[in-house]
Write a structure and sequence with these properties.
The chain is built from one helix and three strands, in the order E-E-H-E. A three-stranded antiparallel sheet has the order 2-1-3, with helices on one face. The chain has a single domain, classed as Ubiquitin-like (UB roll) (Roll). The termini are far apart.
């Protein structure tokens, strides 16, 4: 299982967003996030493109998803 993060998908308000997706590959991660976005009445990647980043987790680390810097 891979871990993906996204900090630029559609959001309710014009502020930072952040999501974590656990999936076997990027296609599955995109499908899962799109389903979650639509369930929250937000736009999927086909209407509001976003970036997925696969996070390597073979060693301990901290990743700041959104530091508030716009």
């Amino acid at each position: 299982m891979k871990t993906f993060i996204c900090t630029d998908h559609d959001g309710v308000w014009p502020v930072g967003v952040a999501s974590v997706i656990f999936a076997n590959d990027e296609a599955e991660a995109r499908r899962l996030l799109d389903e979650a976005l639509v369930a929250s009445h937000l736009q999927p990647s086909s209407q509001e493109p976003y970036t997925l980043q696969c996070v390597e987790s073979s060693s301990p680390k901290a990743i700041i998803l959104n530091d508030g810097n716009y």
